[in-house]
Specification:
The chain is of the alpha/beta class. 36% of the residues lie in helices and 16% in strands. The strands form two sheets. It has a four-stranded parallel sheet with strand order 2-1-3-4, with helices on both faces. The longest helix is centred in the middle third of the chain and has 12 residues. It is elongated, with a radius of gyration of 17 Å. It binds zinc ion. Zinc ion (ZN) binds next to loops.
């Protein structure tokens, strides 16, 4: 039942969940400007599962949606594990802000862009071609693990 290739589109109330799903490697479309019709359109035309806290909207999208019951992020992620079988393994492939695939970047190029300790202790860095944010393995890994275990 687990499908690591799920694509999602999330309603306006699920911005935080969207960013976390991207850190897990999922393709998530999210914009605070998307209205219900736009969300349904994206779900249907791009074969995305619609994540919503709005029961009526979930009904309109039928099987193409997952109704998220909780307001808490940890619970929301658990709901997705239970209902969609998402993987909580960090795949480290996508910018949490832009949803763009991140790309490897030469270590020397990030010397001024990451904390000195990080530079010293890591060799692999990635950047987002959209917002130029720098990522490295470990930058979010521990965060996610702590976060999921706490829940
Ligand atoms: Zn980005």
């Amino acid at each position: 039942m687990t499908d690591p290739n799920y694509k999602f589109v999330a309603d306006v109330m699920l911005g935080r969940l969207s960013r976390w799903l991207r850190l897990l490697g999922y393709d998530v479309k999210y914009s605070p400007d998307n209205d219900d019709n736009k969300l349904l359109y994206l779900a249907l035309t791009e074969e995305r599962l619609l994540l919503t806290r709005d029961r009526k909207l979930a009904e309109r999208a039928s099987k193409q949606s997952i109704l998220i019951g909780s307001e808490k992020l940890v619970e929301q992620l658990k709901e997705l594990v239970n209902k969609a079988g998402i993987s909580t393994e960090l795949r480290f492939s996508r910018c949490s802000i832009c949803n763009k695939i991140i790309k490897p970047i030469d270590k020397k190029a990030v010397i001024d862009k990451v904390p000195p300790y990080t530079y010293k202790t890591h060799d692999e860095f990635y950047y987002c071609p959209e917002c130029e944010r720098i990522y490295w393995k470990g930058s979010h890994k521990k965060l996610i693990r702590d976060f999921l275990e706490k829940g």
